[in-house]
Design goal:
Elements lengths: L19 H10 L2 E6 L7 E6 L1 E2 L5 E6 L3 H8 L2 E7 L7 E11 L2 H16 L8 H11 L1 E14 L20 E3 L7
Antiparallel strand pairs: 1-2, 1-5, 3-4, 4-7, 5-6, 6-7, 7-8
Helix pairs in contact: 3-4
GO molecular function, one term: oxidoreductase activity, acting on the CH-CH group of donors
GO cellular component, one term: cytosol
Keywords: Oxidoreductase
């Protein structure tokens, strides 16, 4: 089941690294990411996309079958999604995932409608479904189904003004398995 757009995204702590449950909740409650994949030549392919989380922690991305994302996944199912916080202080969470392409028309339309709802901030009415289905056919749309297996967090530490008394400090983060338990 596709999760609805969260009313309030998770606010990232600014004094410590995110706990495993916070990392998962960060992903569930945000909507945009930089989608990255390996290319044969040059650097990684990257694009900003809206994604749809599901109730079983998959992340779904709509794309056209002819685009690089879809073509590369057929050859190499490893992707990364750099989930973006849209609020200041800006934070992000890198999500590493195994990906497959799905072309089920019902799923593709469901994801396209959910993406449109995230873009506009409100769900599309059911009356839009035939139009979205026609767009699916015309554009050759598919869904990238991403199954997260690990995350890497970036703490939101920022200089808010040049004369602040507290020193700007940072700490190291690390890769954490997606299903990691929280410390006791």
């Amino acid at each position: 089941m596709l999760l609805p757009l969260a009313r309030e995204p998770l606010t990232v702590p600014t004094d410590r690294d995110m706990l495993p449950w916070e990392r998962r909740e960060f992903v569930r409650t945000h909507r945009t990411c930089v989608f990255g994949y390996r290319r044969k030549n040059d650097g990684p392919g990257m694009s900003v996309v809206y994604y749809i989380p599901t109730d079983d922690d998959e992340l779904l991305v709509s794309t056209m079958a002819g685009r690089g994302k879809a073509r590369v996944i057929a050859r190499d199912g490893k992707v990364s999604l750099c989930v973006l916080d849209e609020r200041w202080p800006f934070a992000y969470l890198q999500v590493y995932a195994d990906a497959v392409i799905e072309d089920d028309p019902e799923l593709v339309v469901d994801v396209m409608m959910a993406v449109a709802g995230r873009m506009s901030g409100q769900p599309l009415p059911d009356e839009a479904r035939p139009h979205i289905d026609a767009m699916r056919v015309q554009e050759g749309r598919v869904v990238v189904r991403c199954r997260p297996y690990a995350t890497f967090g970036q703490p939101p530490r920022h200089l808010h003004r040049n004369d602040q008394e507290e020193p700007l400090t940072h700490w190291l983060s690390g890769t954490v398995p997606w299903d990691a338990s929280d410390p006791a």
